[in-house]
Amino acid sequence: MRCRITELVQWLQSLFLVNTLNQIRFGIDLGGTKIEMLALDESGKELLRQRIATPVNDYLTTVKAIAGLVYAAEKSLAARASVGIATPGAVSRLTGRIKNANSTSLNGKPLVADLQSALQREVRIENDANCFALSEATDGAAAGARTVFGVILGTGVGGGIVIDGKTLTGVNAIAGEWGHNPLPMPSAEELTQGPRCYCGKTSCIETWLSGPGMTADYFRLTGQALDGAEIVMRAHAGDAACEATLQRYEERLARALASVINVIDPEFIVLGGGLSNISRWYQSVPQLWGRYVFSDHVATRLLPPKFGDSSGVRGAAWLWSR
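RE: above sequence
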């Protein structure tokens, strides 16, 4: 492996000559289907953006693809840049290797070491939800706030915490992983219907609040398979079963977020991921979570993201502002 990485470095360096390090920051979002790279200047202005498909179950080719993006961007900008990576999962404090990634080809791999070898510089890596939260706390919807909880509601459910402009990774590198706590205050029906999670547990928040979780909830009651977009569209058109599904979802989301408020008491909670585009959450969920928050008043605000799908890659770039 190391020999192949060394050969990769020599090959890339023979192709690209770059200037010395300056204040340009590169962010890279390593997703299951795409790798996105973004270049920001000191003010947060976007200088360059590129997306490529993620190699399928091929770790070494993924490392090569990331390095190729970086060197090509540096050639285009005539500048050497810092590199931050948003990745599924986290870097294990014990082994230095990737753990908990739903892109399973990354698990157990020394991604940090291999990228630093390939790029010949320090690389900073954080969980993608942490990068989302950092982006929105830096110059996004919650810019300037002291405490921010960033939420990913998509194929999975993730979370990230930013305090005073810095991500909280935690001693176990799992800070913010609310999606793998059990759904709080379950009803008797939820106790018996709790879905099995890929992590091996039952009734994780992710199994209820992810996109597939919404689809499964609708299917359990109707026997029909609809995706989230179709459920929302039909609910707006007056479909009672779809409306009931959304009401169950927002009640569960309120309970789950109330448990976060009770622990870290953030100024802002910013929603990301595909389900963050459902506008009704921002009014309905704060009206519901007061039942479960241990306070006479809830000042926490629930916000949509300023940068949408781009927040993760922007947050990766901002890892070098800490």
